[in-house]
Amino acid sequence: MLNNRPSNVKNTMKVRIINKSKHALPEYATVQSAGVDLRANIDAPIVLAPMQRALVPTGLYMALPAGYEAQVRPRSGLAIKKGITVLNSPGTIDADYRGEVCVILVNLSDTPFEIVDGERIAQMVIARHEQAEWVECDVLDDTERGAGGFGHTGV
What we know:
- This protein has 155 residues and is mainly beta.
- The protein has a domain at 33-128: Deoxyuridine triphosphatase (dUTPase) (Deoxyuridine 5'-Triphosphate Nucleotidohydrolase, Chain A, Distorted Sandwich).
- It is built from one helix and eleven strands.
- It has a four-stranded antiparallel β-sheet with strand order 2-11-6-8, with no helix packed on it. Strands 4-9-7 form a three-stranded antiparallel β-sheet. Strands 1-5 form a two-stranded antiparallel ribbon.
- It is globular and about 55 Å long.
């Protein structure tokens, strides 16, 4: 249990969505799934040559509540088995965007990959976020890490 809620109880929110695709609305595969699969909504297959990228439509339009974003992420199965990933991973869909949800896919393999209508091409996670209020200063507080980054902790 987390926050005194049984593990089989889902936290849900209502998101308005228009489905102009030929497919059902995205749905969670399991009770504890974080993301939903997005499907290609295309009239003809798209063949991605090695190192080629394409913008793949989903036919979905949505209105997220203020303070939330949708993160578009690669599907692990496509990544490991076929070398297909989301190029701007994770892609962000802002709450005020009202256009079609599209996915930028890239083929990192050495083999062409065919995307067909209805194929699960990415996953989408709805996440809460904050906006920063920038406070300009001349000095930052010291930490043990300091400016160490990009492998500073060793192997």
